[in-house]
Amino acid sequence: MEFRDNKAIYLQIAEYVCEHILLGKWKAEEKVPSVREMAVELEVNPNTVMRTYELLQNKNIINNKRGIGFFIDENAIENVKSFRKVQFMDDELPVLFRNIYLLNIGFDELKSKYETFVKVNFNA
């Protein structure tokens, strides 16, 4: 995984975990990699992974079964969507709106591009 400089690493790891859940790679009730395993895989400090797991636990995306490890919550998909939606609306949408306004992009053009994107990427 290549990390970007503009966002904390633990948040980027949280996005990575959430994406795996949304794509169905990690399913409800499945065990997630241990803190050590994830740290080795992503080449980061275990404390960084622990911080990620604590955040995801607080958002009810994963839960800790003491002595066994971390597992995907049964409602993880809904919780991920809720968590990511708030992040998107607060952080990314204002930047997008600013660019749409500055570049004078119409909603019809935007809709067309969006529909093409979905067709190419998700209706294979």
Question: Which features does this protein show?
Answer:
single chain; transcription; Tscrpt_reg_HTH_GntR; 124 residues; DNA binding; mainly alpha; GntR family transcriptional regulator; DNA-binding
Provide the gyration radius in Å: 17 Å
Question: Approximately what portion of the residues adopt beta-strand conformation?
Answer: 5-15%
Shape: elongated
User: The CATH topology of the domain at 9-76, please?
Assistant: Arc Repressor Mutant, subunit A
Q: How much is the average pLDDT? A: 94
Largest sheet, in brief, is: 2 strands, antiparallel
- SSE order, one letter for each helix or strand: HHHEEHH
Helicity level: 55-70%
**CATH hierarchy: architecture of the domain at 9-76:** Orthogonal Bundle
